[in-house]
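Q: Structure tokens for this one, please.
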Amino acid sequence: MTQESRDIGGAAIIIGAGVAGLMTALHLSPQPVVLLSRTPLGTEASTTLAQGGLAASLGDDDSFELHLTDTLVAGDGLCDEAMAKRVVEAVPQAIDHLIRLGVPFDRGLNGKLRLGLEAAHSRRRIVHAAGDTTGRELFRVLLAVARRTLSIRILEGVSALRLVVAEGGIVGVLAVLHSGVIAFPTRRVVLVTAGIGGLFSDTTNPLSSYGHGLALAACAGAELADLEFVQFHPTALDNPRRPMPLISEAVRGEGAVLVDDHGNRFLADTPGAELAPRDVVSRAISDQLAAGRRVYLDARRCLGPKFAKRFPAIDAACKQAGIDPAMEPIPVRPAAHYHMGGVAVDVEGRSSLDGLWACGEVACTGLHGANRLASNSLTEAVATAAWVAASVSGTCAGWQWPRLPETVPVRPDPSSIRQLVSNALGIIRDGKALRDAVATMLPIAVGETAAADPALVALLIAIAALRREESRGSHFRSDFPQRDADPLPSRLTLCTAFESAVALNWQTAERSR
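A: Here is the predicted structure, written as tokens:
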């Protein structure tokens, strides 16, 4: 394998090229920036799969305070209220900026933005573009603008392998292109690498989304936060296709109901019913599936023949699977969808490691707490990208040539550990399964196989899940079903996680003697 160092003049490097990455790059203009994309742009991005829109308090009956309250309630006691307030107040301006860039948000006959309703929102406040293809439209427009921006250099097919650290800070990025290893010297790196859904058998995320940014940050020594909180979307299309097509919450917002295979509406007596928080709905569906029943989303009465016009992408996915949602109910099941945890960052996206920032799903800002409010993810990305860019641009661009390592990690592949992760870190967890998973994943995580980095991320999540001996938001422990009176955000580094894993394995070995 060839090795080389490439001079980029100390430009900031953005690892990842979804909405958060493109927005950050555009806000950094005219400062030079290099954007690394592991695949051809848009081919394996979570952004392009996003059907939900952006949550923003734009209605006449809405307010920042109401949006904040809904966010805090969904976060189940673990949101950073100051951060949440800052985001919900910033997003209307961010939407205005997107409109100026050319994003064609949906509008009513009166010319005003059309506002949709999703779970746990007390008002209609979801802004969409092209119906249920908001993520794709955002990406299309932002990419076109980025390609026209001379300060942005986009490198496709380049995968970051490791962050190079010296004297307590970032000094470079080690990446691979084809069979060659490249070292990019820089003191400024922004992670925008999306989520972890690819660790699970049932997921709406690209299968390659195994937590790439978390592995990079952890191996560099950065602090991680709230990793145990993995959100399962209640209604993914129940068919063999992976990633699973998402049946947007907006369908339930239009009045669709969940029924079992006998037509019984099993959430009718639950507060919020089909629009209860996602963790509540996901567990209710999981209970039905565990009892041997199938679950369906029935939109025939509320939408019927209007379904295809209102949700064209969902209609196409259903029909590809042989289902006509205007005429028959849609089979659904929960799937790993979003990670509330991530790289611990401050209000400007700075991590605990000098020279490293994070933005979007890979970051843990404190906005989401234990359970993300629907459509607050794109909201967070477009609002915080400006703050991250301002922080990066105000930092010295000095750099030094990093030393190339003697060995290079292999390209990661999470396929061999998906079933293990799904069993231990699913919707309902318990201590024994988590401890068993830690024991199995530790030797894989410290090995040199393609499963090493994915196993490392899964190990970190399992340790965090073991430490939280309560049930809160998306984290449910069958052996600790109660909630703590004074919950605390969780913090973790690679070093502390390994110490915990080794101690757990030693305790298990001692008990077995």
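A few notes: The longest helix spans residues 81-101. The mean pLDDT is 92.
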